[in-house]
Amino acid sequence: MSDLARDTNSSASNNKTSNTTSDSGSFVWIIQDTYDASNFFESFNFFTGDDPTHYVDNTTAFAHNLSYISWDGKVIMKGDDTNTLQSGQYRESVRVSSNKIYNTGLFILDINRAPWGCGVWPAFWTLGNGQWPNLGEIDIIEGVHDNEHNQVTWHTSAGCNLTASNDFTGTIVQQNGQSYLNCEGSGTLPGCGVIEWSQASYGGGVFAMKWDQDGISVWNFYRVAVPEDIQAGFPNPAVWPNPTATLEPAGCDPLQYFKNHTIIFGDWAGNSYATSGCPGTCSDRLMDPTNFVNASWSINSLKVYRRQNVKIVSAGTPQILHLPFPLSLAIVMITAFVLAAL
Prior knowledge:
eight-stranded antiparallel β-sheet, disordered C terminus, Beta-glucanase-like, transmembrane helix, hydrolase, hydrolase activity, hydrolyzing O-glycosyl compounds, ConA-like_dom_sf
């Protein structure tokens, strides 16, 4: 498996006022799905399959207070931080995946916090149905133990490669002192990844992942730096600062290597504890519930937008956009928002 741009001035190279396609058409991102306190747990399945972590079903999660809606309307999912365990016992945790399947989209996650700490491996990712990694995996948030830096990772079948570029702010994961660009994840191959420079990845804010024919990009914004277009509900990645990470279509066709994805939240520590720098052993760590007081997701919302192409037809002057009524209304609202911001 597997957020905030390094320098907001980097948006200069990205400072376009509208989304455009290669054939001189235009497009906008319009809302497709919203997941929040009103519908989150009805929209996600609880995973209980084989995994290094002991994930529980929805009945257990609700009964043991591992999943709930807080008094102030936040979606909470967490590991057990109450029960003292005997050596060798599993600590209960939660992993959920969306009922809906997506092929491309703009995914915007607004969180107050993500899990962190020794013995914890927070993750928010999308995954193709079928045998892994044939339909791809996109790790949007992934950390391990008390690591302060998020890692964006792609896992694919053979033939997909990360393109080294100055158009994203993160650092490509190295292997033997060289940038590792092979995204294949089968067998023992790790996939390709980009490490975010920010040390505030898990403290709350907004994560965004754009997946379309132009590639796959991930952003992370501090709360105070969330773009106004996101806040207004009309996101326009074309005017955001450079992303943390980008998988460009020149090296990997995002429509060929990534298909039929569900959205997943989870956390686990796996077998990496011995090399983590955390104290003691993983087994000892798991016994004490106070070690997991920070092992929780607090989510405001997850919104999924779809890309809607719009056709510009020249009819003298001015040019005319031919749109269905709901989309026409959305364009009017976006225009009003932009004018208000000028």
